[in-house]
Design a protein that fits this description.
alpha+beta, Dna Ligase, domain 1, binds adenosine monophosphate, Rossmann fold, 13 helices, about 25% strand, binds glycine
Amino acid sequence: MNVLLVGSGAREHALAWKLRQSPKLTDLFVAPGNAGTAALGTNLPLKAADVEGLTKAAKEHRCELVVVGPEDPLARGLVDRLAVEGIAAFGPSQAAARIESSKAFAKGLMKRHGIATARSAVFSNRTDARNHIESLSEPPVVKADGLAAGKGAIVCYSKEQALRAIDLLMGEDSAFGTAGQTVVIEEWLGGRELTAHAFTDGRTTLPMPFSCDYKRALDGDEGLITGGMGAYSPPGWLDAETAGRIDEQVTKAAVDGMMAEGTPYRGVLYPGIMVTPDGPKVLEFNCRFGDPEAQVLLPRLKTDLLEVCLAVANNRLHELEVEWSAQACVAVVLASGGYPEKYRTGFPISGLAQLEEDVMVFHAGTALADDGSVVSSGGRVLTVAALGDTLTEARAKAYHNVQHIHFSRCHYRRDIAAPAQEARVD
Ligand code: AMP
Ligand code: GLY
């Protein structure tokens, strides 16, 4: 079977790597892909947002399944467009993808179905939003309603900062365009952050292991919010009761809610959770795998990913048992110095071939130079992921192998899955 995979990050390289292991796979096409995916399939020079181009490519290359990595093509209706052509897809419809593409929609869904989340209010009028902030007793979190590449949530430490956030999002020259014209203002939640993921075909929901990612650029959770600087799975600090509550009262409740509202949800559902002293509460829903969470989950997946994607796309997930390795996985992101702000690219990358067993290097911002060598081409450049019998072993292996890889101005966090963090008590 031919498959088209959409996206170009380390998440998509991990998906390509896992799909490649399937005996069912014939040709793999990746649009647009990176230097890593080029070794596993054929990269197509198409933008992930090009719904028409992708649909045409899927037909032309006789792909029977399209696996969609990022949220943008989902929010643009790629899955709906493919359905018109009779092509199966792994990912939610445009209507179902609103769970991520509109925070106001997600908040409404949670309210309607009793899913625990931060108290919030939605505003499309700047004056009303500002007045609401003035009336609050604590500084809130201000979020753009629409997609903002993970940068649309502003955690405020004072009301003045919250007012400035409103101006930034809703002002004439809004930093986020139409994504910020509507804002969600919500209460700040304290606790420990956690990522849940599940495969679902809308009826059957199979939760994946839990994982944790590191959103800030610098050690000790300092610096700017990024796409993600590292991840680990499983979080040993999560108790079974809380885990069960998340599976039942968040993940399954959201999938059932979407079905009840006539917008069945298919694909990966990723609830971002804050484990608060009052129990788990939802920070956001994402309609796809997390990046870098995918890089710690997919190495732990024992079942054929292509089988899972087909079962999801064809409403047959109840027939499948999805198995996970008991091993732990730790992923460290190697970024271009300066990311998420200004950074330089085009630096040669060395040491990619010197890795130990059970260590994977997933490419993100990489490209092939004319001489066939690999050079940096983006903010997040590589993810080094390692499996181990314990988190400590996986962590040591990941960092040991990071030392083999070199490119100018490489930056990575030293504290991913550090024992002090794993054992932290809030
Ligand atoms: P979001 O895009 O909604 O996931 O927010 C990005 C990040 O902001 C989250 O991963 C959290 O670290 C933080 N955040 C979002 N909402 C809240 C909240 N209500 N309370 C505390 N932190 C939050
Ligand atoms: N790791 C966060 C995200 O993928 O949204």
